[in-house]
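Annotators were shown the component list below and the corresponding predicted structure, then asked to write short factual statements about the assembly.
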Amino acid sequence: MSGAAEPAGPVATAIARAFRDERSIVLATLIRQAGDFQLAEDAVQDAFEAAVTVWRRDGIPANPGAWITTAARRRAIDRLRRNRSVADRAQRLAELTRLDTPHEEPSMHEESTIVDDRLRLIFTCCHPALEMPARVALTLRALGGMTTGEIARAFLVAEPTMGKRIVRAKRKIADAHIPYRVPADEELPDRLRGVLRVVYLIFNEGYAAAEGEHLVHGELCDEAIRLGELLARLMPDDAEVCGLVALMLLHDARRAARVDSGGAYVALDAQDRSLWDQDRIREGLAMLDRAVRLRRPGEYQLQAAITALQIQAPDAESTDWAQIAELYGALAKLNPSPVIELNRAVAVGLDSGPAAGLELMEPLLRGPALERYQPLHAAHADLLRRAGDAEGAVAAYERAIALTANAVERAELERRLGALR
Amino acid sequence: MSQYMLLVYEEEVETAVQAEREKGLPMLVELHASLREAGLLDGVQRLHPVGSATSVRVRDAEVELTDGPFAVTKEVLAGYYILDCADLDEAIKQAARLPMTHWGTVEVRPVMAPEEWLSVAQQAGADVPDEAVSELA
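Structure shown to annotators:
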């Protein structure tokens, strides 16, 4: 928690829990009521800081969430009185003051308002008029409950730089009047895809870290899954939301197996399967099931289905490559990309033999898109080797080795090359 | 009579330097009043800082948004629109209808309300009464 001193004991625990469970709910509603992101966030921050003192003095309130809501609203009123630049200030003040009476305390019938407010907050943080790094940072801060310092460390950026990025984004939301609302039906699919992209980017940022200098940023993976699950609760009928959650859970289940004891990356077929998190896998498969039952196929669901097939097979040889090839074909139709074509060629090669795989790979080898893409040349080499073209395989392995920056990958490619000579 | 558009360019400066500039508002209020009196002033508006800009282009029927101002290239300023929109989403939607977005770029910049202009200047220490808002813009 930023700003507040670190108190010990039950008060600290209660505040940490309220911060994790209630902060974004309180914030989401207060932004709507106060009409200003920054002001609402400052007021919520004030409320948490006040809680440190007041809860120690008077005891932890029976309903910490309600306490924070009331305290934040009063701080917002104070701040609104001092700040003249907020639009519709008088009206906002009147509304907040009206709410600040005991009999106006929100009740359960406002559950749907709370859901809407959280969706408003998500769609505002992920607005396409904000640059991508700002969307990611705002989402993690406002909805994920990470502090600016934590976000900065996770993205290897200096804290003041990250702070400026967040402040600038909030300023743009206010100045340009980025609306605080859930997009209308006709824009919703497009905007939701944008939100899912932000969530998946957060996940990948955490997941891909295993391949760099530092270890997996587990907290980013956890936050992305939490955000995905929140979206799945708020929009339970959207198949792609479920598909993305399934995909993230199935990847995350293998988190521990992706890095060896020396901190190096371990490829899927070399992973120790006993390290896979079976609970996570079950959750992921259940989520994928839920998505598929909605009968609205999409990219994330297809990717999750491919991952599920790979995970469920006892080893690489007994994997259902025919079905994987088919899923890649469907994926290529939705979102044509050379990398998906490559994956399809590899799956076809494993299912129907090297000649069929080579035939699909041919156009990729001729085109410029993947010219410097190491996995293409490594996969090409494997297919040539299996087809009995040792000379061609040697050349392709050499090309792949020249393109790799990863020491573990290089060692593996050199081992395969050595076996040919 | 011909119409002319005067485009104001300036560097965005740090808060303290900007505050000094804001203090010059009384002179601007006077200037606007005299231009109006002479029948020359059709309109004057201040824009929010460039960080609030969104650039809109349409390519292959896809609306492409960029967070930030239009970067200077060979393209030059060719005209302007002033629209009254509920929010940025509507402004972007209308901007994307302009055929120029298919070959050029339309930068969407929020106009600062005269009240906010006045309030920003007053907070920086400019000596202007609230009533000056009607002279300002």
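Statements collected:
1. Residues 25-37 of chain B form the longest helix (13 residues).
2. The interface with chain A takes residues 48-49, 51-54, 65, 67-68, 86-89, 92, 108, 110, 112-113, 116, 119-120, 123 of chain B (CB under 8 Å).
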